[in-house]
């Protein structure tokens, strides 16, 4: 058999490696049992090692981890990893399957076929994939995976964070998985460079921070990539926005308003940005700039750009500002910035008021007002020596609409505010709310109830723009409906 270094040598007696070994005079290897007489799953195992539980894949017993560890160690001693790496995943899996079956038989572990399959999956995930993370990565209902050291893995499902039973053997294994993830994008994470951003092959966004900066072991955060991105209709179905509110958003996207999406971490900013891009006319040339490509535009004429961190020698970095500046030389109709975080704010605003109407970006802030003042501070901190009033004038001349996204305490994500930038009064930026989410109470399941209400503004500032695009009647209707809701 391929890859074996020592299996043909006499195996070390099971007794020496088996934890909690019971003396068993003549153990019958499970692998040798005739296929016609399968051992009932419930039968007491007359074996050297306690068999693992196949059910409840996320909550394994201590015995399971002991067995797995023993078999895993034997496998690693046996297999030639260099040769294994040359194989395609299917053949490598078959190879591991054969060797594990043999180890199970040599070590007299009695387990059902289902248990063996589940152990084999786990071991293959450890050797070939991302170890205990694999079952979580395979689930599509998880938004985030948060690993705080080997023993604590949390996930976010339906807006709620919960602890899972998944754990790593130790921080060493966790570090190996982190290393495997970041090495795919040509990076390294270790004591010397303990912070790293990366991306999984499926597009999920990954951050790793390792000891000594992370005190209790490596910390890994994954924002799972959703293959089927939410659409505006999904947001309506979830109650994140009312149907009339969705119509207003659609008009904002279609009539080329310069738009900022503001919100806290994980509030759904990127998702909302993606849904708005659905209303961009297919004839427009759109350029997206992101730190990790998350947006999925459906238009035919899209150029996707991604920033690049510095290499191991500390050179070669391409920042968001570099990308946005370069965009301007690429004849874009619209520029979309995944997340505005620093001095690129200035270039995005410049783009917005130099003929790239309909440009969009997200930023972290708790309200539209705060979003605008954050924009100002990003420009100030970016080293532009402009008087505050000039910066405000640029903001007012550039941004048309700010949409606020929020994750409420029940875990639901809602669009809580749609505001317009009206102008400057003295030194103050004036905004006007078009739509607000009003909380009306809580249902019996603790779910927050509320409604999206128009503030009674009949003619938003972008009315003329909507008229130019032939969308004024729809806008009037949506605003009326929001009042009546
Ligand atoms: N309205 C919504 N209803 C339900 N789930 C949503 C909604 N909006 C976003 N999500 C889900 O929430 C998760 C986080 O969304 P998203 O990545 O858009 O947040 P974000 O604000 O951009 O986060 P970050 O600040 O980390 O960039 C994703 O899994 C997404 O599918
Ligand atoms: Mg985001």
Q: Could you characterize what this model shows?
A:
There is one protein chain. With 485 residues, the protein is of the alpha/beta class. It has 16 helices and 15 strands. Residues 1-56 have low confidence and may be disordered. 34% of the residues lie in helices and 20% in strands. Helix 13 packs across helix 14 (388-398). The strands form 2 sheets. It has a 9-stranded mixed β-sheet, with helices on both faces. Strands 3-2-1-6-5-4 form a 6-stranded antiparallel β-sheet, with helices on one face. It has helices at 14-17, 62-78, 81-85, 89-106, 113-128, 134-138, 171-183, 232-237, 243-254, 269-277, 320-327, 344-352, 368-381, 388-398, 463-468, 472-484; strands at residues 142-148, 153-157, 160-163, 195-199, 205-209, 219-223, 259-263, 286-290, 302-306, 334-337, 360-364, 401-407, 413-425, 428-442, 448-454. Residues 269-270, 339, 362 line the site of magnesium ion (MG).
Based on the model shown, name its key terms.
disordered N terminus, nine-stranded mixed beta sheet, single chain, 15 strands, binds adenosine-5'-triphosphate, six-stranded antiparallel beta sheet, binds magnesium ion, 16 helices, alpha/beta, 485 residues, 34% helix
Lay out the secondary structure:
Elements: H1 14-17, H2 62-78, H3 81-85, H4 89-106, H5 113-128, H6 134-138, E1 142-148, E2 153-157, E3 160-163, H7 171-183, E4 195-199, E5 205-209, E6 219-223, H8 232-237, H9 243-254, E7 259-263, H10 269-277, E8 286-290, E9 302-306, H11 320-327, E10 334-337, H12 344-352, E11 360-364, H13 368-381, H14 388-398, E12 401-407, E13 413-425, E14 428-442, E15 448-454, H15 463-468, H16 472-484
Parallel strand pairs: 7-11, 7-12, 8-9, 8-10, 10-11
Antiparallel strand pairs: 1-2, 1-6, 2-3, 4-5, 5-6, 12-13, 13-14, 14-15
Helix pairs in contact: 2-4, 4-5, 9-16, 11-12, 13-14
